[in-house]
Design goal:
With 343 residues, the chain is of the alpha+beta class.
Length: 343
């Protein structure tokens, strides 16, 4: 019988620092709490401390997973870490995490650099590793500290993004059909400039000039060392890419929209998600939202939402869940999760 990956457990970690919508409204008086809430649907965002990096958040999430009894460090044979805010250019952050968690040195480990589509891609990588016999117990981590890239004077990103990490356990299962999959993916690098940290890498290194912040036409202040988001362009991208992904995964799986019990999209912001749900004609009771307490946590939004849905009893055995990720790159992807009721 073919071996496939099964999602066994999820935990997540939110750093202690919190910025509420009321805090942001006080900083930007021309944006009221009501206006920010209507645009984002977010009540608070967790922010990593100055000394906290992606590895610290990832380790904290993994330790919660181990403490739950789902798996022990000694049983993990592969570590996947999705992050765009690694501790260093090198070494690989997954290697540092392996050492800190006491995972055997016989385990594989790698980082991959993706944002809001990262959880879908990581599930695909884990499924491939397990289906081909390269691994049997994959610790899949997501961790981001976008706050370290954001200028305090840029409300366009500060109202949306928060820091977080998640830890997912994927193990070989004996299900007759794959518990995860099929997958559809998409990539369009022509949109790379619309969600970017322009300076600080090797293409455009950090300099004194790159650190100089200036206001834009909307009154948002940032430097080339800071995160830049062209909101309208990103919004237009999602309105085309996401329906394409949804229709693609339905066609590939031989399912209809009615066959899906729950839809969990990347939790970008309330305004965008409302538009997508209405465009796709998804019933609101099937469309899951989990961003009010932590905001857009990039690659961690989908696992956080899955964890909350499970806690609410929404993932009974056999439940079909469509997962869709989309964002920076541009990059997007979708898959179908068949719940085993373990989460």
């Amino acid at each position: 019988m073919p071996v496939h990956a099964t999602l066994r457990a999820i935990e997540y970690y939110l750093p202690d620092g919190v910025v509420t919508t009321a805090d942001l409204a006080a900083e930007f008086p021309d944006w009221s709490v009501e206006k920010i809430d209507a645009k984002t649907g977010i009540g608070c965002r967790h922010i990593a401390a100055a000394e906290e990096c992606a590895s610290d958040l990832a380790v904290a999430a993994a330790q919660k997973l181990f403490a739950s009894g789902a798996v022990s460090p000694q049983d993990v044979d592969y570590v996947l870490l999705c992050t765009q805010s690694p501790d260093y250019f090198l070494p690989t952050t997954a290697c540092l995490v392996q050492d800190r968690l006491g995972i055997p040195t016989s385990a594989g480990g790698l980082d991959f650099n993706l944002g809001c589509s990262g959880y879908i891609y990581g599930l695909g990588l884990a499924e491939g590793l397990i289906a081909t016999g390269q691994a049997s117990s994959v610790l899949f981590l997501t961790a981001e500290t976008y706050s370290k890239f954001m200028n305090k004077g840029d409300r366009s990103v500060r109202t949306i993004f928060g820091d977080a990490a998640s830890a997912s356990l994927l193990q070989a299962g004996d299900t007759k059909e794959p518990a995860i999959g099929p997958f559809v993916y998409g990539t369009d690098g022509s949109g790379g400039q619309n969600l970017i940290v322009p300076a600080g890498g090797l293409r455009s290194p950090h300099t004194e000039a790159s650190a100089v912040a200036t206001p834009d036409e909307n009154g948002n202040t940032r430097s080339r060392d800071n995160l830049f988001m062209n909101g309208p362009e990103v919004f237009n991208f999602t309105l085309s890419a996401v329906p394409e992904s949804v229709n693609g995964i339905l066609g590939k799986s031989g399912l209809s929209l009615d066959d899906i019990d729950l839809f969990i999209f990347h939790q970008a912001n309330q305004y965008m998600l409302d538009h997508l749900r209405k465009r796709l004609k998804i019933p609101p009771e099937k469309f899951y939202l989990a961003l009010r307490h932590c905001g857009n946590t990039v690659s961690s939004t989908i696992p956080i939402a899955l964890k909350h849905a499970a806690a609410e009893g929404r993932l009974s055995p056999g439940t079909r869940v469509m997962l869709v990720g989309f964002g920076v790159g541009y990059s997007w992807g979708a898959t179908i999760l068949r719940s085993t009721g373990i989460l």
